[in-house]
Amino acid sequence: MPDIILNGPEGRLEGRYFHNPTPNAPIALMLHPHPQHGGTMNNKIVYTMFNSFKAQGFSVLRFNFRGVGRSQGTFDDGEGELSDAASALDWLQSVNANASQCWVSGFSFGAWISMQLLMRRPEIDGFVSIAPPANMFDFSFLAPCPSSGLIVQGERDDVVPESATAKLVDKLNSQKGIEIDYRIEPTAGHFFENEMEIIDSHIQDYVSRNLIPAEE
């Protein structure tokens, strides 16, 4: 899993990339939680997401937002981080020009950024959001939501109440042609401390049922 350096809007962005050698393999971008609360691309949920998509045959990229690790720049309240994500997706697409599909996945703050990216990049075919912070950030931009996806939420989350996420899911599911697969883990908190295998299982199950096979 090579370390890579991308050109971002504020300088270099540090990343980790796995390349699937299968022709036309799908691609997926992973986004980490809040930089000001210890979020990095090595967060264990982000690492689990990365490996889940890898196991499903994707070329996968995770990276540090500006000001995290070896990434240059400073925290920019989400606006700059969205630009970082767009640059990372540009790089991922540049080395996988014939990818059969494009997915984005994020945890907490990263889920919020990923769904903004979803709105701006029509080539994104699907998404996975873990504990999207529906009580902290405005998700009204998802009108209409351009893609169906998976949302996983812990019922014992004391950072993002399950009720807030459920309200977001209901709003998205009311939109024509959109189906949100909403999975609630009854014993999980915000950080899914002992549930990495459960997250992996949910992602692989959902992706395997919704991925269009690449054409040789």
From TrEMBL:
<feature type="domain" description="Xaa-Pro dipeptidyl-peptidase-like">
    <location>
        <begin position="24"/>
        <end position="163"/>
    </location>
</feature>
<dbReference type="GO" id="GO:0016787">
    <property type="term" value="F:hydrolase activity"/>
</dbReference>
<keyword id="KW-0378">Hydrolase</keyword>
<dbReference type="Pfam" id="PF02129">
    <property type="entry name" value="Peptidase_S15"/>
</dbReference>
<dbReference type="InterPro" id="IPR029058">
    <property type="entry name" value="AB_hydrolase_fold"/>
</dbReference>
<dbReference type="InterPro" id="IPR000383">
    <property type="entry name" value="Xaa-Pro-like_dom"/>
</dbReference>
<protein>
    <submittedName>
        <fullName>Alpha/beta hydrolase</fullName>
    </submittedName>
</protein>
